[in-house]
Fold:
Amino acid sequence: MIRFEPRGPVAVSRTIGVSVTAAVAALVLAAIPMLFAGLSVLDAYVLMIKGAWGSMFAFTEMLTRASPLILTGLAAAVAFRAKLWNIGAEGQLYAGALAAVAVGTGLISGPSFVLVPAVIVAGALAGGLVMLVPTLLKTRLGVDEVVTTLLLNFVILLFVQMMLEGPMQDPMGMGWPQSEPILDEAALPKLMDRMRIHWGLVIALAASLGVYFLLKRTVWGFEIRAVGENAAAARHAGIPVTATFIRVGLLSGALAGLAGVGEVAGLKGYLTADLSPGFGYSGIVVAMLAGLSPIGVVFAALFIASIFVGADSMSRATGVSNYLADLIVAISLLSVLVSGLFLRFRIRLAGTRPARESAK
Structure:
């Protein structure tokens, strides 16, 4: 018979090692379908690296893809720290994008220094309010937030489609279900000329530093960590558990909403129902690879973005489907979950005693 024994506190170096091992394991396992497809694994990975890092254009495209992944990864990381399982970042992203478009297409008027902050605040607020619903259901009625956040993704996407085919449809779009373009005064500025990279990356990096400071240097951050470790003990110590969950839910949803703001106000300029290729779900992988570390989220997002952008380039060069990127991301998640299990627990066979006991 096999039993699992807790290992106790885990060193930061071990957590980093787990993440690196998971990424390497994903790349190694992804080589198997490449071989079946008749590809040279080395050549395929070289093409992927060049596609994501081989030129200034490729590098900026990778950073552009990483921007929403950083924000959705932070959304998952901060919620998971408090054991609030937010699986709804995809829906919160769309809610933020919808609010940004509503404000940025003429709801209010003014110069850029008024419209850009208004668009950002509207998107963050919309994402936070969406996450508030399952958080209240969890704290007041004990409803499982995994189910509610997951199902809300589909509800919000259907609502977005309804708005794009109804009151928010672009009258100049020839019937295509898309919103009106965001005003130039409401758009996030570009970071480089003739490149798609925009200030959404700066917002994402600032958010990462902000969340790190919040978790490590503030009373609220201590409360989040305490609730995540043991909610019952935290409540006994006088920490307002319900209020902490609500604040975490609002922050998590706001971060995901900011990802939607960046995609419509910084990149695309208008909203469509296919705005996100799954950034909300990929953010969960980013958070897990990062070990729920806000700074680690940045590096994990760069890795995942490199896989997506590099796989697109490799696919065009070899004719192999770029769904290989989805396979690598999925294997990365499975690898980090399995590695995390062995990081937190020690496996014992029935009849064996811990090393300390056998030494006696």
